[in-house]
Amino acid sequence: MRAxxxxxxxxxxxxxxxxxxxxxxxxxxxIAQEIVRTVVATLGLxxxxxxxxxxxxxxxxxxx
Length: 64
Hints:
- The longest helix has 35 residues, at 29-63.
- The chain has three helices and no strands.
- The relative contact order is 0.10.
- By secondary structure, it is an all-alpha fold.
- The protein starts with a helix and ends with a helix.
- It is 84% helix and 0% strand.
């Protein structure tokens, strides 16, 4: 989760510094790209643990 904190900093700065609405800031291309990148990376990390466990269990059951 440490990697998500620096990428959220520009979003927080834009929300505080500009008088734009939250929807206006979130739909900005740069911010929207960072949000999508963070969501995809999070899904990848969440999916990696069960997939690795399944592959390890499959490998262990074939060698035993």
